[in-house]
Amino acid sequence: MPYATVDDLADYVTPPPNAPLLLARASRVVDQTLLCARYDPDDPDVQAALREATCEQVAAWVADGTEDGTGASPTYANVSIGSVTLGGRTGGAGAGRASATQLAPQAWMVLSQAGLTGHAPQVPGGC
After folding, report:
1. Which of 61, 9, 60, 51 is nearest to 30 (CA)?
2. Cα–Cα distance between 4 and 67 in angstroms, integer?
3. Residue 33: helix, strand or coil by DSSP?
4. pLDDT category of residue 1 using cuts at 50, 70 and 90
5. Whether the Cβ atoms of residue 2 and residue 24 lie closer than 8 Å to each other
6. How is the chain split into domains, by residue range?
7. Does the structure show a pLDDT above 50 at 96?
């Protein structure tokens, strides 16, 4: 279930036609980022951070214009095989873009400032 609605997203960007799908995919990226984090999912502050991070993730994808949350966006703008011309990068973290598997910088900041990141995995009962 997505952490944000299309109405929530409208506070960040004009929602694209596939906004519900992007919100669901962005929620999975947030979940992956917080895989080992411990937090109270019923805490309103946590819910607000998850919602905001999800919207920031979709906003980054919309601003990028190439990512649809699948990870199938092109890596290079131009590609040739004879004489090898790759062109400029159009996706991936090195290009400053939000990929389908990596959290966008603004989304990361939201989660970090809410205290949801930076925790090592914990073993019940200690080691």
Report:
1. 51
2. 19
3. helix
4. confident
5. yes
6. 6-113
7. no
